[in-house]
Amino acid sequence: MKAISWMLSCLLLSCSLAAQEMRVKFAIGEWAPYTSSSANPNEKIAELIVVKAFESQGYQVELDYFPWSRSLRLAAQDKYDGSFPWMVSDSRQEKFLISVPFFTQKIVFFSHKDMGFTWNNTEDLKKYIIGATQDYQATNYLINLGVEPNIANAEEINFIKLAKKRIDAYPTGLIRGNYLLGKLFDSKEASQFQVSSQSLMEDEMHILFSKHNLERSQHLNRVFARGLQQLIDSGEYQLIVFDSNRIDE
User: Fold this and answer.
1) To the nearest whole percent, how much of the chain has pLDDT over 90?
2) Which PROSITE patterns match (predicted)?
């Protein structure tokens, strides 16, 4: 009986370990319409892509929500497999294994019409008070251009600053910015904002896999790439992603 009990315990342990191997955990944040703790699928576009890509390969996905700065720190540790969606930077390449891109992001300036914001080059930007969000790639991009941005902890704060005319302009994704206008302001208030026709930058968005367990992360990276390609080939990807965000165009 002891032998049978021992064998059953080993079998249960083996099954438990196998289940853990087929479960992927990500630390993410609130960034609708791409990631959101709400149940609304229209606010979870990036999540849907990642979850469906892994599920197509037999994996389960677990998502935990934190402030973005904390998500990035947790993703570098051994409690999570990674975080998404992020643009690539030199520091992130040092700390993380970068996935294939799964959507693009066009960064444009939002401004209040009364502020008369226009720009053609970097020198133009230096004349204005430009808002920025902590740990966002656009923030680092501005700093590298020699622009000293007014940094806040959340994008919502920057849009409120725009409405109160405390900053001249704020760069964010076109779709993300329009989403926030609809969320934070009524139609009359939102009509007071304008969007620059010229983009500050355009880049691809990725999963950042932890390097703590490099062998596992390399495997998960390959799994995600296969799953993503399967979504694209089946046409399901195109049904989820906004046309301006698609990588298959």
Assistant:
1) 83
2) PROKAR_LIPOPROTEIN
pTM for the complete prediction? Answer: 0.85
Q: What is the rounded CA–CA span in Å between residue 90 and residue 29?
A: 22
Architecture of domain 105-203: 3-Layer(aba) Sandwich (3.40)
Nearest to 105 by CA among 219, 214, 242, 234: 242
SS3 category, 201? strand
Alpha helix segments (H runs only) across the chain: 2-21, 45-55, 68-75, 90-95, 122-125, 137-144, 155-163, 174-184, 187-190, 214-234, 236-240
The three-state secondary structure class of 161 is helix
Same fold for the pair 23-104+204-245 and 105-203: yes
* CATH 3.40.50.1980 corresponds to the domain 23-104+204-245: no
Sequence spans of domains, the chain: 23-104+204-245, 105-203
